[in-house]
Amino acid sequence: MNLQILSTSDSHTFWWGEETIAKDVAAPYGLFRAASVLSTMTKDAEKNGDFLIKIDNGDFIQGPLLGNYIAESAPDQATIFSELPKQIAYDVRTLGNHEFNFGIDYLKKIFEDDQTLLNANVLDKETGQPFIGQAYKIFEKKGKKVAVIGLTTKYVPNWEKPENIRGIEFVDPVQVAKELIEQLESRVDAIVIAYHGGFARDLTTDAILEPETGENQGNQLLKLSGLSALVTGHQHRQIAGVYNDVPVSQPGYRAEAVGQLTISFSDEENRKGQTLPAVANLVHTNNWPEDTKILAQYQTLKEELDGWIDQVLATSGTDLSIQSVPQARQKGHPFVDLINHIQLEATGADLSATALFNDEVAGFGHTITRRSILGNYPFPNTPVTIAMTGKQVQRALETNAAYFTLVDQQIAVNPSYHLSKKQDYNYDLWLGLDYRFDLTKPIGQRVTIEAIQQQPFDPDKTYRVVVNNYRATGAGNQVFKEGKVLSEGRQTISEMIENYFQNHDKIFSTKQKHFHIDY
User: In this structure, are 264 and 390 located in the same domain?
Assistant: First the structure.
C-alpha cells in the first residue's frame, strides 16, 4: 500500500480559472481546476487501495478579488471558506501568513469549528495551546497510522499589524516539530509535516538563497530525524523532489499545481533488490477543466462578485496603462506616480514609496473599476508614515538601487531578487524627490539625491515618508524599520485609491521627471 499526500497551497482565492483584471480571459490556474485534479487523483488512489491524505497548506482566504470582496463587502458569506474545502474533501488545512491579514476575530469565524485545521506553533499566550485548531492529527487505514503536523512560518509578527495578532505568539516551528516527532514516532508508521513556509537554502547544494531570518525554515525541518514527508508553501515556488530521503513538494501559487508525494508502506523490493523509493511530483492544472459541479454551485457567488468588482468608479481622460512592468521599474511610470501621489495626499507626508508587485500589474485604462484597482493593488495594506533622516532616505534608496545590475552593459534584475522566489515587490519607486542611480558604481554607492520637494537635499534633515505597513516593518528594505512611526492609517491603500477616483474630477497623471538610471 502506498501513502499519497496531495496538496495545494497559496491559492489566494483564485478559484476561477480566469485572469484577475481581464475578465473572461482564461488563465492557466485556479482552485476549481485543482479540484478536478484532486477528484481524479482521489478516485485513482481509492481504486489502487492507497492511503490518501489531502492538504491545503494555507493562504486560502486572502486574495485580490474574492478575498477582498468577502472581507470588505460580504463578511456574512465568509462561511464559503469552510464550505469549499469540505466539498474538495481536504483532510488537513494549515494557516498561512495571509490568513492573519483580517484579524483574529475574522479568522476564528472561519476556522474555529474546522476539525481539519492543524496548527502546532501559533499559540495562545495565556494557555500555551494552539489558539485555534489542533497541533496534529493521526489518520489510520488498513492498520497503518500516519500523523500530520501543521506549522506556520514564525515570521508573521514581522509583517502583520499588532492588532491582528494580539494575544497569540508564533513559536519556532522547528523546535515544535522536533518535540512532536519525538512524541509521535513510536505511535505511527509515518510522520508528515505541512508547513506554510519554504526554503532559505538550495535543496541540493545547501547554498544560501536568502537571508536566514527564520521566515523559511524548511531546510531545518528536513534534517529532523523521523520525518517521512514535507509539504511546503509560502514562497510560491514549484518544488518536487526527494531530499535526505524525504519527499518534498511546494505547488506554486494560485492553484497552478497540485503536489503529489508517494511513499510505499510495502516491505516489497523492486527488481534490483532495493527498497521502493519515495516519489515527489507536481501535477500542473493548466490543461485541466474546472470542476463543473463546484463551478455551478458557486455561479451565484461569481455573479455577485463580478457585480461588485466591475462597478465603474471613475473615468480618466488619460490612459495610465502599463505596457511593460520591467520598463516601468527602470524608467518610472505615471501609474506609479499616481499611487504615490494618493499616498502623499492622504497622509501629508513629504515622500512616498510604492512598488509594482508583480509583472502582471496593468495600470489603469480610461475606465476605472474596483476590479482594476484590486488587480493592481491586491493586498490589504495600510499606509504608515515614518520619520526618516536624509541619510536614511539615501540608504533606503541604495537598497532599491541594488535591485538592478548590468549584464553586457544592459540593465537587468539582480539575481538575488529571484533566487528563492521572485521578489520584485521589494523594489520601490519614489515620489517627492529627484534621484539617480549610477549602476556603474558599487552597490551602496549608486544613489544621488538631487533635490527633495524642489529643495536642496539635506542628509541631516528629517523627512516624513509614507509606505505601506508591510514595508514599514523593514520587509524588503530594513532601513524603513529604523525610522520612527508617526502615524498609521486605518484605511487600506486600495480603499484610498478608490476614494481618490470618486472624489477627484481630474486625475493626477503626469509622469514626473524625477528618476533616472545611468549605466
Answer: no
Domain count, the chain: 2
Residues 155 and 233 in one domain: yes
pLDDT at 494 over 90: yes
Asked if residue 435 has pLDDT above 60, the reply is yes
pTM of the predicted protein model: 0.93
Instruction: State yes or no: pLDDT of 273 exceeds 60.
Output: no
Judgement on whether residues 355 and 268 belong to the same structural domain of the protein? no
Look at residue 317 in the predicted model and tell me its pLDDT. Answer: 82
Is the CB of residue 172 less than 8 Å from the CB of residue 153? no
Residue 266 is classified by DSSP as: -
3-state SS track over 344-390: HHHHCCCEEEEECCCCCCCEECCEEEHHHHHHHCCCCCCEEEEEEEH
Are residues 290 and 340 both part of a single domain? no
271 pLDDT higher than 50: no
Q: Summarize the confidence of residues 230-238 as an average pLDDT.
A: 97
- Kindly state whether residues 434 and 347 are assigned to the same domain: yes
Tell me, what's the pLDDT at 510?
A: 66
Cell of 372: 482594476
Alpha helices (runs of H) in 289-333, residue ranges in sequence order: 292-297, 299-309, 325-331
Instruction: Give me the mean pLDDT over the 360-386 stretch.
Output: 94
How many CA atoms does the CB half-sphere of 221 hold within 13 Å? 34
Q: Do 248 and 161 reside in the same domain of the chain?
A: yes
CATH code for the domain in which residue 472 is found: 3.90.780.10
Cβ neighbours for 189, distance < 8 A, ≥ 6 positions apart: 144, 145, 146, 265
* Mean pLDDT on 139-164: 96
Whether 299 and 376 share a structural domain: no
* pLDDT band (50, 70, 90) for residue 448: very high
Asked if 452 and 433 count as a contact pair (C-beta separation under 8 A), the reply is yes
Range of the domain at 389: 312-518
Residue by residue, DSSP assigns 21-63 as: SSTT-B-S--HHHHHHHHHHHHHHHHHHT-EEEEEE-S--S--
Same domain for 409 and 432 = yes
The amino acid present at 97, given as its one-letter code, is: N
